[in-house]
Design brief:
By secondary structure, the chain is an alpha+beta fold. The protein has helices at 2-19, 84-99, 109-114; strands at 31-37, 40-48, 55-61, 64-69.
């Protein structure tokens, strides 16, 4: 019985640690989201870049890589996502647009403002 209680406490502590978001805790570096619509499976995966402190996202359709985005779209210059969450959430918006249009999806400045990546004047919000 004692072993079961100890195991349960360890599992609960690990689950709380994986939830992240608390100040002072390390943020997750790899995040993934999957959804299926009309028989098509869309996956978004955020991962750290090898060469910078930034993040990118990859969108796969039915298991095949479709988009790999290493910079923040719409923004002039080469700026990377500062957090895995920003990369993942941007990828989710692209997937939603892919599911609802027959054209290639295009992000807008307004999309990135709603996600909190850009401020109202179009400049990148720093998360650091």
């Amino acid at each position: 019985m004692r072993r079961l209680i100890t195991s349960s406490l360890i599992i609960a502590a690990l689950a709380m640690g994986c939830a992240g978001g608390k100040q002072g805790q390390e943020q997750p570096t790899h995040l993934k989201f999957d959804t299926t619509a009309q028989g098509t499976t869309f996956s978004v995966e955020a991962q750290p870049l090898d060469t910078t402190d930034g993040y990118s996202y990859t969108i796969s359709v039915n298991g095949r890589k479709f988009i790999h985005q290493t910079i923040i779209p719409v923004v002039e210059g080469f700026h990377h996502f500062e957090t895995a969450e920003d990369a993942l959430n941007t990828g989710k918006v692209v997937v939603f647009k892919m599911m609802n249009t027959s054209n290639m999806p295009a992000l807008t400045t307004e999309d990135l403002i709603k996600l909190g990546i850009l401020s109202q004047d179009g400049s990148i919000k720093s998360k650091k």
